[in-house]
């Protein structure tokens, strides 16, 4: 059966559930401090994040044992967090250490504590079975803190299901239509692509040879090669890692200088780093960055690239929000997939297997 022959799915089934036995980014590392707890909901789990006196990031359920007051509205006191309502204090394991109104501490006074790993400039949290939380399974985003790469990023609060963001990133032909003034061009839809997959990953590779550089890439080429003119070879290599991290190897090089064979020395190379954290069935935290391996010393280029990608992703955000509204308004509409959806469909298969392993349905419950 080809992609075009695949059976239809309803719009409602596009609202995908999220695995919980997985690492999700909760915040940029600089967002979690010892001054004030940070509130963030991850996969329907409200969390309070803070740092103890050793600087270690902690994630507790954002609800006091006593009356469920949000701990994120409380205070960090050394190695403990204090409830803003009645002053109960909890350590990093979630155990209550003080009840101001009485000397005896109820032994059941505990709030859930979640495994945390700091890596690649992010704070990652595991909201599933803590016994399965293996730090070696944190997705590879090494370009984020490698001395061979420079760049920065932002966070988008996306009013849509996380799977819609993954769909968007796994098929970049939409650039021709959504981003026509910056990175889009006709060759995106015309170029052939290859898809490969493993148990936890999918790769989509597309090369466009001997083409005009779109405005975004022409500027980047001239940042490295002042006055550049002429044709380029362009590449997009999308690397998905379950459950929701996508690194996109992108760039252009002077046409015919060997980039498709591995010599990118006559071009500019970037990685669009994306990791999407489901908040609820219809909202997501979208962490992104653009990293480059040329002109590492230039803060001007870093700022310009961040601003440029911010504008591009703003166009995606508008489209994704509109798509979510349409899905909610037409839950029985049947969707068919196109050949360009091949990478995204493999992503869905991987996520479906993860959900089945946890005994969770693929479709998230309506809210």
Précis, in short:
Helix 1 runs antiparallel to helix 6. The longest helix is centred in the last third of the chain and has 31 residues. It is built from six helices and 20 strands.
Question: Can you describe what's shown?
Answer:
The structure is a single chain. The protein is α+β, with helices and mostly antiparallel strands. The protein folds into two domains: 23-127, Rieske [2Fe-2S] iron-sulphur domain (Rieske Iron-sulfur Protein); 141-357, Alpha-Beta Complex (Naphthalene 1,2-dioxygenase Alpha Subunit, Chain A, domain 1), CATH 3.90.380. It has six helices and 20 strands. The protein has helices at 162-170, 175-178, 187-190, 215-224, 299-329, 342-357, and strands at 9-10, 23-28, 38-42, 45-51, 57-61, 75-77, 80-82, 89-90, 96-98, 113-114, 116-119, 122-126, 150-158, 193-197, 201-211, 232-241, 245-254, 267-280, 283-292, 334-335. The protein has a seven-stranded antiparallel sheet with strand order 13-19-18-17-16-15-14, with helices on one face. Strands 3-4-5-10 form a four-stranded antiparallel sheet, with no helix packed on it. A hairpin with a 2-residue loop joins strand 6 (75-77) and strand 7. The chain is globular and about 80 Å long. The two termini are 34 Å apart. The model is unreliable at 1-5 (pLDDT under 50).
